[in-house]
Amino acid sequence: YIASAANKIVANPGTLTGSIGVIMEFVQIQELLKKLGIGMQIIKSGEFKDIGSPHRELTEKEKKLLQNLISEIQDQFVHAVAKGRNLPVEKVREIADGRILSGEQAKELGLVDELGNFRDAVNLAKKMAGIKGEPTLIYPSKKKGGLWDILFESAAQCFLRVLKSSNAQLKYYWPGPVSSGSIEKY
Question: Domain residue spans in the chain?
Answer without folding.
Answer: 22-77+144-186
